[in-house]
Amino acid sequence: MKIELNKILRCPNSGQVLILESEQSAGEDVTSGWLVSKDGKHRYPIFNGIPRFVPESNYADNFGMQWNKFRQTQLDSYSGYPISSDRFWKATGWTPADIAGQWVLDVGCGAGRFAEVALKAGAKVVALDYSSAVDACYANLKQYPNLYVVQGDIYALPFPKEFFPFVYSLGVLQHTPNVFKSFSALPPVVSPGGGKLCTDFYWKRFRTMCHSKYLIRPITKRLKQQTLFRLLKTITPSLLKTSQFLGAIPIVGKFIKRIVPVADYTGVYPLKMNQLEEWALMDTFDMLAPQYDNPQSATTIRSWMENAGLKEVEVFQANLLVVRGIKS
Fold first, then answer.
1. Are both 25 and 58 inside the same structural domain?
2. Are the C-beta atoms of residues 221 and 290 closer than 8 Å to each other?
3. pLDDT at position 102, please?
4. Contact indicator for 30, 20 with CB cutoff of 8 Å
């Protein structure tokens, strides 16, 4: 943990500043120790260089497992394609010049696919996740001096109010227990006078809700994660080939292949076959393992933004259903 990060951390229970105790350091980074609230009532460990504000095991365990198994899969620097960067810039509408040198909060960072994009643009990125995916993010991106990793709870963010000029959360909120409450945690940390917020959701519409995953999720989300992963590792190659076969049928193929519960990016991303199989396994597990999967409508997310006081609200499809706005 960089000392600079401690300057902006706050106790998620009391809002007080945090005092660093019993720390061990390697160069300028604190590798272990404790963060203690000013009144001494709350203590949070620093482990492997990351401050931890959540229980060791939680509802997001499957994501921690997923991102540590597929630590580099979605990084543009690993895949060789600008898949994450294209999605990031299209969704946010920001430019590298906008965020260079600015504090940017990534809520639900996973293994750091979008954090990498912002870091390369020169942003000071605080990458937060509820799961142990923070360890994968840190391992992937620790070479960036402008990276600050935190394991924290979206319902109790350990930051001062109205601090971040840029906040985003992509591919995350639909997997939280209470999506409205999760969204509502974000506007308060956006700085006033032009601070920007961008997030996205699975789209609650007939086409989405007809996806075959919703037929089997009641079963798969109750399986042990390792059991589900072993099963998917065995059957995903066959599922992918079936989906590709159906998808090749003229006109109707792109619709009927949705009956196959597999993440098929054939024709969507310019990935090689081995990469298509890796992404298929990773995102099929992502579809079937999470405890929560709560799509939202365009009307709903627009109203959330506007009721939170954000202006110039835009709602559009860019991979998922995106909403973004400005805090005036």
1. no
2. yes
3. 98
4. yes
Using the CB atoms, write b or e for 127-150: b if 16+ within 10 Å. bbbbbbbbbbbbebbeebebbbbb
| Rounded average pLDDT per 10-residue block, the chain, 328 residues | 94 96 86 96 96 82 81 96 98 98 98 98 98 95 97 97 98 96 98 98 89 94 94 97 96 92 96 97 95 96 98 96 97
- Taking residue 37's Cβ as centre, other Cβ atoms within 10 Å add up to 19
Backbone dihedral angles phi then psi of residue 50, each to the nearest 5 degrees:
-125, 125
Spatial CA neighbour of 133 closest among 85, 61, 56: 61
- The closest alpha carbon to 167, from 127, 209, 136, belongs to 127
78 CA to centre of own chain: 18
Clarify whether residues 37 and 168 are in a common domain.
no
Shared domain check, 150 and 94: yes
Instruction: Tell me which residue has tokens 């006033």.
Output: 192
Q: Which residue has the tokens 């979008």?
A: 114
Q: Pick from 261, 215, 266: which is nearest to 244 by CA?
A: 266
Which residues does residue 103 pair with via DSSP β-bridges, in sequence order? 124
Domain count, the chain: 3
The reported pLDDT for the residue numbered 68 is: 86
Residue 60's pLDDT is what?
Answer: 65
